[in-house]
Amino acid sequence: MKPIYVLNGPNLNRLGKREPAIYGTTTLAEVEDLCRASSGDTPIQFHQTNSEEKLIDLVHEAIDEGAGIIINPAAFTFTSLALLDALKMFEGPVIEFHISNIHKREPIYHRSYVSMRADVVMAGLGAKGYATAVRAMLDLVGGR
Ligand code: CA2
């Protein structure tokens, strides 16, 4: 069975430790546990990186190995054409996930490059929403 890749971009290693009013108190380690608890028998490849290069390398790995990608690109959402190009090479489903509702925030957070490739965009469910994203991905890859 091919894994679902759950990829997290810059600063999300600080989740639960900063700005709890926006991002809550759930840590990224707890998010990883939630994803694994929600995926049943389907393996999860869970990663976080602060590096654009490493995030693109992980998308390349998913292109070769993954059934689907759930990605919270954090600030690279709004800046990285290179990440968009990499995601366009992936043939399976892509869910763009944001903990906060980016559309409620300042205009610089409204224009997502990643949304130009994503099949599904989820924003505003909080960190526990990663579990919802995993369940949605299982529906999307069902039978693969
Ligand atoms: O809501 C999200 O998931 C975001 O993708 C988080 C990004 C932000 O740039 C996006 O606009 C929305 C990263 C926020 C900064 O990183 C932090 C992580 C944990 C705690 C505080 C900040």
Q: Kindly name the structural category.
A: alpha/beta
Helical coverage, percent range: 25-40%
The end-to-end distance, rounded to whole angstroms, is 8 Å
Q: Nearest-angstrom radius of gyration?
A: 14 Å
The small-molecule ligands in this entry are: ligand CA2
Low-confidence stretches: none
Shape: globular
Largest sheet: 5 strands, parallel
Number of helices: 5
Q: Secondary-structure element order, as H and E?
A: EHHEHEHEEH
Percentage of β-strand residues: 15-25%
- The residue-averaged pLDDT reads 96
- Counting DSSP E segments of at least 2 residues, the number of strands comes to 5
Cross-sheet strand order for the largest sheet: 2-1-3-4-5
Description:
With 144 residues, the chain is an alpha/beta fold. Helices cover 35% and strands 17% of the residues. The protein has 5 helices and 5 strands, in the order βααβαβαββα. Helix 4 (81-88) links the parallel strand 3 (68-72) and strand 4. Helix 2 (28-38) runs parallel beside helix 5 (129-141) and helix 3 (52-65) runs parallel beside helix 4. It starts with a strand and ends with a helix. The protein binds ligand CA2. Residues 11-12, 14-15, 18-19, 23, 72, 74-75, 98-100, 102, 109 line the site of ligand CA2. Ligand CA2 is lined by residues 11-12, 14-15, 18-19, 23, 72, 74-75, 98-100, 102, 109.
